Amino acid sequence: MKTMLNVALPKGRLGEKVYSMFEKAGYPCPSIKENNRKLIFENEEAGVRYFWVKPSDVAIYVERGAADIGVAGKDILLEYEPDIYELLDLGFGKCRMAVAAKKDFHDDKSRTLKVATKFSNIAGNYYRAKGRDIDIIHLNGSIEIAPILGLSDVIVDIVETGTTLKENDLVVYDTVVPISARLISNKASYKFKSQQIDELSKNLEKLLEEQA
Ligand code: PRP
Q: 8-25: per-residue pLDDT in tens?
């Protein structure tokens, strides 16, 4: 029997792009396109089993070995620092992690800076490296309203097109790190299924080169 690769895909827009890339690279699974609420699909012939999981959970499935490989945003990898291998930058899902604030914001270094974010670890590391004292206010979404309501001085959040900031009268103050989708692997899987994982990674890389 063929060794199956268990692949965690991020549910949603990014995931559809990821699947179509895997399909083109030689890992199709036609049943995934059926319009239903199923979350697991497999194609024994192609040696793949796909799971749809919440984008922020992909790294957990891969780290714990429930999936051999997966695709996760660099933001999630930097935030949760899972013990996985990062194999390939897939070059899409591009955005940046940025510090944003109201237009009239001036950083008063004598005060503790109030930072609202969903990415507490990334924000903490960024300001620690600068030696800046901060008070992190962890939020789960709609981060942009925090400075408007005076809950925080700045936010650390994902900026893609910049529309959300613009429509809420905020501006980028600094870029923390560029983000894109990454192919990741469970460490033990990489050892025991190295041939399949390397082959898949190479096929994806080849596809990326052809598309460039
Ligand atoms: C992200 C991010 C910003 C927005 C940026 O939110 O938190 O709010 O996208 O995109 P833009 O620069 O193109 O406007 P997301 O839609 O992921 O939802 P969230 O509220 O759960 O963070």
A: 999 988 899 999 999 999
Flag whether the pTM goes above 0.90. Answer: yes
Please tell me the distance from the alpha carbon of residue 212 to that of residue 208, in angstroms, as a whole number: 6
Q: Separation of 58 CA from ligand 1 center, angstroms?
A: 19
**161 Cβ closer than 6 Å to some ligand 1 atom:** yes
pLDDT in tens, 54-82: 999 999 999 999 999 999 999 999 999 99
- What is each CA distance from 44 to 23, 27, 69, 187, in whole angstroms? 14, 10, 17, 23
3-state secondary structure of 62: helix
Q: Which strands form 134-138's sheet, in the order they lie side by side?
A: 134-138, 113-117, 154-159, 95-102, 170-179
